[in-house]
Structure formats: C-alpha cells, structure tokens
Amino acid sequence: MGADDGGPDNYLDFQRNYTVTSRNRTHIFVQSYVYELPFGKNKKFLNSGPASWILGGWGVSGVLTRMSGTPLHFTADGKNLNAPGSTQYPVQIAPFHVFGGIDTNPWFDTSAFCQPTGPGCPVTANGVLGNMRRYQFSGPGYFNLDASLSRKFPVKERMGFEFRAEAFSITNTPHFSNPSVSLTSSTFGRITGTGDQGSAVGDGNRVLELSAKFTF
Q: DSSP code of 13?
C-alpha cells in the first residue's frame, strides 16, 4: 500500500482531510524472548547421563508481532461531483460489518455502501459528497511469529560448535492485503492478495533456515 504523504484529497470539505496517516496501525504488540532450557550439565534437570547429553545446551528464542490493520480509503465514482482534485466518497447506509472472507468471498458487507446519486441511494443530487471520510475503517490485522532453536556443543576449552534452526512466520499465517474499497471496482469488498500492507511485513509464507557456526 502506498503512502499518501498526508496530502489532501478533498477541497469541498477540507475538514475531512484530517485523519490518521495511510500507514497507521492503532495497536502494535511485539514480544521477544530468549530462553535456555533447564536441562543438561550444571542445570536443574537431567544434569547427568545420556539424557543430559541429548537435551542439554538447547535454547529457544523468538519474536511475536501482533498489529491492527491499516486504514481503508473508500472511494466512489466522482463524475457527478464536478470537482476536479476532490475525491468522491460512498454513502454509508448501514454499519460496517466484517465477514472475514477471502478471494471471492467479501471481507466486509458491501451492501452497507452505495454510490451517491446511484439506485437506492439516499443522496440523489449531483455535486453532493458521500457521507464518509477517508480512513474511517481499518483492514485485516497482522500476526507473525518468528522462532529459533539452537544448541552449543563444546569441543575444547576455547572451541565450540553451534547449531541453529530458524523459522520465519513459523505458524504460516497469511498476511492479507487490504480489501478493494473502490465502489467502482468489480472486486469491491474482496481481498485478492497478500503482502502489500507495507514493505516490511511480507506475505506470511513460512521460511526455514539451518545454520552452523564454529567458534575458536
């Protein structure tokens, strides 16, 4: 999703331009952790014998990220607005309700919006703005968990070997893009892709990596 740089898109009712930025996320939670398992030599459990050798020295770490969605900018056909440089908004005639559908199933209830001067719409006069404002609602949220498992093997007093297995998006949870919010689009209300909520979030596909390091 591209940033709007805070530029106005409505000159008929300038107050409607004051809102959050296009990349706003109202809530962001990030938790990181590093934990060395309590098994093996000099640890609380299984500190001797074969079990100590097998289970000792392992550690886990990870980063959990949970964010609310980015804003949605609903637009409508502006040909009857007759105001170049200003964006026409839909008319909201019912509460915003999220269905959560993907692809051919709508993510939100599209019947809650209508085109100004369109059939069945309460706004019938040309040149009248819809009753919405930009970034009034937000798209799907974001969840991601990266994790790693590692173990250190002592070789000699000043030498060691470390094995590490890492998983990015270990739960393989898709990072869906925002639904189409253009009333003139054939995909209005539908989510048709992943990974465009910002360049840093990716599409949520699981990636596994294995690595080894020798220290001396």
A: S
Distance in angstroms (rounded) separating the CA atoms of residues 15 and 18:
6
> 78-136, pLDDT tens digit by residue?
988 888 888 899 999 999 999 999 999 999 999 999 999 888 888 888 888 899 988 99
Q: How far apart are CA 49 and CA 90, in angstroms?
A: 71
Which of 113, 15, 107 has its CA nearest to residue 69?
107
User: Cβ(107)–Cβ(141) under 8 Å?
Assistant: no
Relative to beta strand 159-168, strand 71-72 is unpaired
Each residue's pLDDT tens digit, 174-188: 999 999 999 999 999
Q: What sign results for the dihedral spanned by CA atoms 90, 92, 25, 97?
A: negative
Residues in Cβ contact with 33 at an 8 Å cutoff, skipping those fewer than 6 apart: 60, 61, 62
